[in-house]
């Protein structure tokens, strides 16, 4: 039994069983990768970020809108303006949707019919596009299912219809990435098989490599996906791709090293297991330091807060698993197969001595300064010629998606930022349905609209994006001034009437009448005639004063009316007395004393009326003058800036239109509201972050010192998400590069035991990477017309380039370290020896990234081109720079200062001896440097 166990251990069967168990468990526990990409693929923002706070606020919004998100149903007539028939068809479609709203999870529908004040924001200026806003519940189902169902429901004959929102577009981007992920995986594995088959002219060796890649990949992918599914660990939509990219490249390189050494041993007659053991022992250190470098470098990314960068930290685990599999799994098959691994070509291929690196190294040693100058002349202009800007738009690569097309229609007919507005939530402990708070909200709306980069702003006081005229003082003053003009005119009429009445009531004439009444018999007829005329005049004054008293509600006019009422009463008394007197005159021709008494009373009454009319005339004149002054003041106020302010009376606030606006823009407690800000540019524009920062500063400044100074402000929307990602990414990317490359350089220094040489090599790699990046930008701009890279391109490119640097520079570092001679003696043969395998590494790196082209994605195409350009440039420049800097690092310190040479002049023979002795010292110093 013990012998059998020893034999199984000798044949590495236990290692095979271990990996079979691991891969079986990984396959069984692997969650649905497409589902993980859909729900966890997008960057996870911190709980303290503005978009997350806004989402939490929206989830408790109330008014039956909690836990909803906004979806735009777009109806577009590609041939021009919507006809009345088409508008009726849209209304019919919306009515049908309203009937089935509960089925689709639609909590609210906003149209320009049921919300006329929002018409400018829902109907394009060219009248070709109408928007119907839907509030859809998150609990209804997946975004993808909801969009598909609503798209079929809103289909209208003769119109192009779309269902779009930032959530739908983000989901479509994830769907697009998941759709080509499997294609990229299969193509990458296929190219890996072909590459190994070409290198070894074998069928079995590629299969073993394929199994090693597959087992390492499935194990790492299952671990990463389970961490995201069960423990909410960071996950990127490109996680399956970048894990495969790193694992396949590293496995291809380590397998190549392994198979090449194994073939040399087995062709010399070594036993399969013995040869495998020797290869493991010989390559174990090299694989170990490469694995250690990559594991530490990428594992350190887990320390970052940004979820996408933290997701790349899973590569550290992937490289560790791959390194272990390279020294435990691959030897299982090599030990069993031996030389049969290279079937059908059994004879060892004859390796040619490639002279490229030899000649490049020789030129660098011959003219180091010229070599350095040539490299700098070729690389530096390319490296620093252009500065590309990254694109943070996830919809850039999505082809023929209805949500993306709908967003483009909105951008074309409403403006670039219409499909992705910014929402500003404002929360306070005060109710927002009174004049003071609404006044400040309206001022904030107007202030934000005036900012550069802002196309429109809607709020509770301006739901259509434009001020409502009847809510402003200027419009209200216009009505008041019209009323005052009428009142002043009426006062002038009354004043003229009083003047006429006062003139007609002359006391002297009445006294003369009294005297003439003494002659009753001869003057009775004349008295009756005068009395009738006077009665008619008084009745006319009475009717005019009554008409004038009912035309105004002013306080002064009210006092005037009271005075006129007193006058009217007096006039009525006078008329009654006059009537009585006239009647008495008819019946009292024989009673002169009675008639005289009555006429005396009449005269006294007429005197009182005349005095009262004079007093009323003065009061009306004073009132007319005051009203003129008020009119002039209000006319000036109407044209001033103060008249442009909002003033909502309690009656206007209680009106149906404004109550509907409150219901649309505030929560149930009327203590939170939001403003929708439409930007002029798309969210991936270069100045979006600057615009958002300006909006935040303006909002805080506008509310400072007002009743809303303590309000909580929260910004959300796709531009805010994009800006948050951009800010975090631009803050963390330099730190990522510094950390990973710093760790790689540190380990390279430790392995080579040389600070200067390792630094020279690594700087050469960095310059090559920058040059490859800029060349790809130029080529992509020429091919596609778009030179902007997706923001994930640097991170994805980071993987193959780091593998390239670690593998090639580690090999160079080990060769340098194992050399016991002087540096100058090692440079030409050492670099030439390393160059014999560099072409194979270059071939493997290029072949390993070609599978990314199967995705037909600009992002992955850019990664492929950057990797290829960098690998080619690096393999051409490295021997030149390594030789040149290596020689200069020895020659320059060995040179003596010119002043020292001039002071100590020696005979030619002594100088030659001194010079002859100088060379060994340089070698000794070189050993010390090493």
Automatic annotation (TrEMBL):
It is found in: Cell membrane. One of its GO terms (cellular component) is plasma membrane. The keyword Cell membrane applies. It comes from the Bacteria. It is a multi-pass membrane protein. Residues 898-930 are annotated as: Disordered. Residues 899-918 have a biased composition (Basic residues). Residues 68-361 form the Membrane transport protein MMPL domain. The chain crosses the membrane at residues 12-30, 180-200, 207-229, 241-259, 283-304, 316-342, 363-384, 733-751, 758-775, 795-816, 837-855, 861-894. The keyword Glycosyltransferase does not apply. Keywords: Cell membrane, Membrane, Transmembrane, Transmembrane helix. It holds the Pfam family MMPL. Belongs to the resistance-nodulation-cell division (RND) (TC 2.A.6) family. MmpL subfamily. This is RND superfamily drug exporter. It comes from Levilactobacillus parabrevis ATCC 53295. The lineage of its organism: Bacteria, Bacillati, Bacillota, Bacilli, Lactobacillales.
